[in-house]
C-alpha cells in the first residue's frame, strides 16, 4: 500500500534535524549512477528521517512493507521514478512473502526506476542473488551516525548551550545516535540541568522506546531467544544452544540478523568458516542493557537464576572458570561455585587459575575452607603467590592440623597435599628441598602418598628461574644430577621427563661452558620431554636453544625456533605459555633494535601499577628493558624496586641479580653515582655462581658499565670471560638497549617517506603516493639513514620509532 506524501512528512521534524553527511554523500552518488540503495540500521538511527530530509517535497512513491501487497508492485505504468520501500525486516517468511520478494527483485532489475530499500537488518538471503547482479549501494548505521561536528550543529538547532566538555560527554553517551541526543536536548529545552543523572533518565526513556516499538513487536519466540542470550556479553553458537535450549540456534540467529542490526559478528581470522565455535556474537551495548532490564520484567527470579547457571556450566565445561564463577554468582549457585574452586585448587598454579580467581577464593568464609583439604592447600599456595608468606603458612598449619584428625584414605590424601606444599611453596625457596624430594620418593615408592602433578617452570623457558629459584643447586650441578637423576623424574611424573638434562644444560649455559655440550644436553632433554612429557619442558629446551642462538649471533634462528614452537603451543591451547613466547620474541627484537614491535607489545602488556602479579615477572623484566630503550628511566627504576621486593620475599636469587644489573644501568643513565655499588652487588653474586650469561645478555649496556666499575673481581677467569663475552655481544648487537638521544631533524619530504616506509610501501609505491620521482625517494632515504646512523630501511624505521619521529 502506497503512503501519501503528507503521511510521509507529517512526523518529520525539519527544524531539529541534521543530515549525516556520510549517508548523504553515498545517497547522492547512488542517485547519479541510478544504483539501488540498501539503507539499514538499528531502530532510532533515523533511516526514515534521512529519506524525508533527502527528498523533501520531491515526488517519490513510498511504501511500508508492513502494509505492502505484491499487487502494489506489479503495475508497470503506475510505478516510475523513485520508489522507497521501508520496513523490509518484516518480510521474513517465504510462505507469506515470496510473491512480494519476487516483485521487489523485478523492480531492482528495472532501469527506469531508482529503488531505495530500507530495513533494520542487513541484506536478506532472498535478495543476495539480485544484490550481486546489480551491486547495490549500501548505507549502514555507521553512515547514519552524526559526527561530533554534526552533533554540535544539532545542539545549535535546539538552541541549547553546552560546554565543550558536556558536548563530548553527550556524544560519547549517545554513541552518535541522533535520537538519543534529541531526547536529551528536549529535556534541556524544558530547563532541566545537564548532569550525569539526566543522561541516565534519557537512557531509561530510550529503553522504554525500544521495549514498546521494537521488542513488543517481535514474536514471542524471538523475545524469549534474545532475552535468554542477554545474560552474557558475548556468545558462540554452542553457547547459544546451551542457554536457549535451541539446537537450531545458528539458523535462528541468521534469521534474526536479517530482521534487525542488533548483533555484531566477530569471526576469528576475519573469514567466516564452517566452524561455528570460531564465530562469536555480541549484542549492541544499548540493546544488551535494555534487554537485561526487560528480562527482569518478563521472567521470575528462579528462571533468571537457571539461565545464569546454564551459562556458568557452559563456561566451566570450556575451561573458562572466571566467567563460570561470575555466572554462578549471579545465579546464586553457591554449591557450584565452591565445587569449581575446589577443582581449580587441585590443579598446579602453572596450569590453574589462581590469580584470575583470587577474589572468589579470598571471599570464601574461613569455616568453609577449613572443611576442605583442597581449599586449604589452594589458599596456602595462592597466598604464597600473592607475596603473603604469613597467610600461606597459616593455611599450611591448618592443613596439618586437619590431617591429625583424619584416618584412612583422607589422611593419605591430606599428607599428599602437605608434601606437595613442602616441595612447591614458592616463598620457601630451596632450603632443605633435596631431602624433601628424597623423602617424597620413598613415600611414593611405598605408596603412602600420591603427589599431584606440578610444574617447576611456571610456564617460563627456564628450570633454574621457573617455579622456584635453583641457583644454589647450580653450584653442585653435576653431583646433584647424578644423585637426584632418578628421584626427581619419579617424584614429578611427566613434568620430570627431560628435567635433569635440561636443568644441567641451563646451568652449563649460564656459566658459559662449551656450547656443544649444552646443545647435546638440550637435544636429549627435549626428546625426553617431547616423548610423553610436558610441553612446558619442551619450552625450556627451545627457549635455551634460542638463547644459545642469540649468543652465537643468529637471532633469525632463535626467532624461527620460537615461532615454530608457538604453533605447537597454540595447537595444545597453552595460553600462558603463548604469552611468554610472545614476550620472548619481543626480547629477541630488542637485540636488533626493533622498538616498533616492542611498543606494540607494550599496549597490551600487564600493568604493574594496577596490580603486581608474580606470574608476570618475565613480562615485567621485558618492560624494564623497553623503558630503558625509550628513556623512561623513572618507570624502569620504579618497576625494578617492585621486582626486588618480590625477589626478596620469594627468595629469587636469579631475579635479584638481574634486577641489580638492570638497576645499575638505569641509575648510570640517570646520572646517579650509586650505580657502581648496585653493579658490585650483582657482580659479586654472579661471580659466586659463575653466571656469566646473566650479565653478558645485556650486551653493550653491561659492557660499558663493566669497563667503568671499580669492582674488584676475585675470580680472574670469571672476569676475563665476562669481559670478552660482553664485548662480543656488544659487537653483535650494537642497537640493544640503545636510547636515541641526539636530536635529528628531517625535512618534511624525508619524514613523509619514512612514515610510508614504516607502513611497508616500496620505493615505487612511495613515489606514486607522494607524486615524486623514485630517485628522489632514494636520495631522501639515504640521507635519512645517514642521519639516524643506520644501514637500511628496517633500521631507520626502528630508530625513528625509538626517537619518536613517527
List the helices and strands and how they pair.
Elements: E1 2-3, H1 5-9, H2 21-33, E2 37-40, H3 47-55, E3 61-64, E4 81-86, H4 94-109, E5 113-119, H5 128-134, E6 137-139, H6 141-144, H7 148-157, H8 164-174, H9 178-189, H10 196-213, H11 220-229, E7 234-235, H12 237-244, H13 249-259, E8 263-267, E9 279-283, H14 285-298, H15 301-317, H16 321-330, H17 334-345, H18 358-362, H19 366-370, H20 373-385, H21 389-404, H22 408-424, H23 433-445, H24 471-474, H25 477-483, H26 487-492, H27 499-510, H28 515-530, H29 535-551, H30 555-571, H31 575-591, H32 595-602, H33 617-629, H34 633-649, H35 653-669, H36 675-689, H37 692-696, H38 699-708, H39 716-732, H40 748-758, H41 763-770, H42 774-788, H43 793-803
Parallel strand pairs: 2-5, 2-6, 3-4, 4-5
Antiparallel strand pairs: 1-3, 7-9, 8-9
Précis, in short:
It contains 43 helices and nine strands. With 806 residues, it is mainly α.
Q: Which band does the percent of strand residues land in?
A: under 5%
- The class by helix and strand makeup works out as mainly alpha
Shape: globular
- Mean pLDDT reading: 89
The radius of gyration over CA amounts to 33 Å
Biggest sheet: strand arrangement: 1-3-4-5-2-6
**What does the main sheet amount to?**
6 strands, mixed
Helix content: 55-70%
Number of helices: 43
Number of strand segments:
9
Q: Tell me the span between the first and last alpha carbons.
A: 59 Å
Spans with pLDDT under 50 lasting ≥5 residues? 3-10, 270-276
Amino acid at each position: 500500500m502506497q503512503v501519501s506524501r503528507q503521511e510521509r512528512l507529517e512526523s518529520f521534524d525539519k527544524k531539529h534535524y541534521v543530515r549525516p553527511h556520510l549517508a548523504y554523500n553515498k545517497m547522492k552518488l547512488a542517485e547519479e549512477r541510478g544504483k539501488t540503495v540498501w539503507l539499514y540500521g538499528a531502530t532510532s538511527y533515523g533511516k526514515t528521517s534521512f529519506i524525508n530530509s533527502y527528498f523533501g517535497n520531491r515526488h517519490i512513491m513510498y511504501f511500508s512493507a508492513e502494509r505492502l501487497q505484491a499487487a502494489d508492485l506489479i503495475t508497470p505504468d503506475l510505478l516510475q521514478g523513485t520508489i522507497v520501500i521501508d520496513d523490509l525486516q518484516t518480510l521474513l517468511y517465504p510462505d507469506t512473502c515470496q510473491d512480494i520478494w519476487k516483485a521487489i527483485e523485478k523492480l531492482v532489475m528495472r532501469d527506469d526506476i531508482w529503488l531505495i530499500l530500507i530495513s533494520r537488518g542487513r541484506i536478506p538471503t532472498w535478495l543476495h542473488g539480485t544484490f550481486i547482479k546489480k551491486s547495490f549501494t549500501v548505507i549502514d548505521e555507521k553512515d547514519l551516525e552524526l559526527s561530533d561536528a554534526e552533533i554540535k550543529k544539532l545542539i545549535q538547532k535546539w538552541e541549547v548551550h553546552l560546554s565543550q566538555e558536556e558536548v563530548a560527554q553527550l556524544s560519547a553517551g549517545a554513541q552518535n545516535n541522533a535520537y538519543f541526543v534529541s531526547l536529551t536536548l528536549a529535556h534541556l529545552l524544558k530547563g532541566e540541568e545537564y548532569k550525569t543523572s539526566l543522561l541516565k533518565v534519557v537512557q531509561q526513556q530510550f529503553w522504554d522506546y525500544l521495549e514498546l516499538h521494537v521488542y513488543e513487536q517481535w514474536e514471542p519466540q524471538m523475545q524469549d531467544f534474545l532475552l535468554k542470550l542477554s545474560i552474557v556479553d558475548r556468545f558462540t553458537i554452542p553457547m547459544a544452544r546451551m542457554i536457549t535450549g535451541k539446537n537450531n540456534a545458528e539458523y535462528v540467529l541468521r534469521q534474526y540478523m536479517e530482521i534487525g542490526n542488533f548483533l555484531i559478528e566477530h569471526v576469528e581470522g576475519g573469514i567466516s568458516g564452517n566452524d561455528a565455535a570460531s564465530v562469536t556474537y555480541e549484542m549492541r551495548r544499548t540493546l544488551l542493557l535494555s534487554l537485561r532490564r526487560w528480562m527482569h520484567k518478563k521472567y521470575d527470579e528462579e528462571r533468571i537464576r537457571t539461565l545464569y547457571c546454564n551459562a556458568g556450566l557452559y563456561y566451566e565445561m570450556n575451561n573458562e572458570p572466571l566467567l563460570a564463577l561470575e555466572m554462578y554468582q549471579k545465579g546464586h549457585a553457591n554449591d557450584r561455585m565452591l565445587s569449581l574452586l575446589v577443582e581449580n585448587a587441585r590443579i598446579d598454579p602453572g596450569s590453574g587459575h589462581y590469580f584470575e580467581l583470587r577474589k572468589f577464593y579470598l571471599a570464601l568464609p574461613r569455616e568453609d575452607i577449613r572443611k576442605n583439604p583442597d581449599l586449604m592447600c589452594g589458599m596456602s599456595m595462592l597466598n604464597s603467590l600473592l607475596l603473603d608468606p604469613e597467610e600461606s603458612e597459616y593455611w599450611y598449619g591448618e592443613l596439618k592440623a586437619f590431617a591429625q584428625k583424619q584416618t584412612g584414605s583422607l589422611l593419605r590424601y591430606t599428607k599428599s597435599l602437605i608434601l606437595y606444599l613442602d616441595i612447591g611453596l614458592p616463598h620457601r625457596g630451596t632450603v632443605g628441598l633435596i631431602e624433601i624430594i628424597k623423602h617424597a620418593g620413598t613415600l611414593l615408592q611405598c605408596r603412602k602418598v600420591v603427589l599431584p602433578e606440578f610444574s617447576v617452570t611456571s610456564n617460563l623457558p627456564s628450570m633454574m628461574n621457573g617455579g622456584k629459584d635453583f641457583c644454589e643447586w647450580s653450584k653442585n650441578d653435576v653431583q646433584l644430577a647424578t644423585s637426584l637423576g632418578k628421584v626427581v623424574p619419579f617424584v614429578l611424573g611427566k613434568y620430570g621427563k627431560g628435567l635433569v638434562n635440561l636443568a644441567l644444560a641451563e646451568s652449563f649455559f649460564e656459566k658459559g661452558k662449551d656450547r656443544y655440550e649444552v646443545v647435546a644436553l638440550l637435544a636429549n632433554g627435549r626428546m625426553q620431554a617431547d616423548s610423553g612429557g610436558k610441553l612446558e619442558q619442551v619450552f625450556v629446551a627451545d627457549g635455551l636453544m634460542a638463547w644459545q642462538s642469540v649468543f652465537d649471533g643468529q637471532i633469525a634462528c632463535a626467532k624461527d625456533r620460537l615461532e615454530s614452537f608457538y604453533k605447537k603451543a597454540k595447537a595444545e591451547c597453552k595460553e600462558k605459555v603463548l604469552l611468554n613466547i610472545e614476550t620472548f620474541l619481543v626480547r629477541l627484537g630488542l637485540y636488533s633494535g626493533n622498538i616498533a614491535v616492542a611498543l606494540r607489545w607494550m599496549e597490551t602488556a600487564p600493568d604493574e601499577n594496577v596490580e603486581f602479579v608474580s606470574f608476570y615477572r618475565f613480562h615485567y623484566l621485558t618492560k624494564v628493558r623497553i623503558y630503558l630503550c625509550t628513556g623512561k628511566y623513572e618507570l624502569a627504576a620504579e618497576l625494578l624496586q617492585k621486582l626486588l621486593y618480590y625477589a626478596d620475599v620469594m627468595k629469587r636469587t636469579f631475579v635479584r641479580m638481574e634486577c641489580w644489573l638492570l638497576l645499575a644501568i638505569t641509575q648510570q643513565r640517570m646520572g646517579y653515582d650509586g650505580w657502581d655499588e648496585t653493579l658490585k652487588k650483582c657482580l659479586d653474586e654472579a661471580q659466586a655462581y659463575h653466571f656469566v650469561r646473566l650479565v653478558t645478555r645485556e650486551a653493550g649496556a653491561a659492557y660499558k658499565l663493566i669497563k667503568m666499575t671499580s669492582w674488584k673481581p676475585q675470580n680472574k677467569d670469571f672476569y676475563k670471560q665476562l669481559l670478552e663475552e660482553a664485548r662480543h655481544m656488544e659487537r653483535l648487537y650494537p642497537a640493544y638497549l640503545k636510547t636515541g638521544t641526539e636530536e635529528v631533524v628531517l625535512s618534511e619530504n624525508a619524514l613523509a617517506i619514512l612514515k610510508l616506509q614504516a607502513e611497508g610501501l616500496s620505493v615505487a609505491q612511495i613515489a606514486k603516493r607522494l607524486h615524486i620521482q623514485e630517485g628522489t625517494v632514494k636520495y631522501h632515504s639515504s640521507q635519512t639513514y645517514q642521519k639516524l646512523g643506520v644501514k637500511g630501511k628496517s633500521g631507520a624505521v626502528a630508530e625513528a620509532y625509538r626517537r619518536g619521529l613517527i
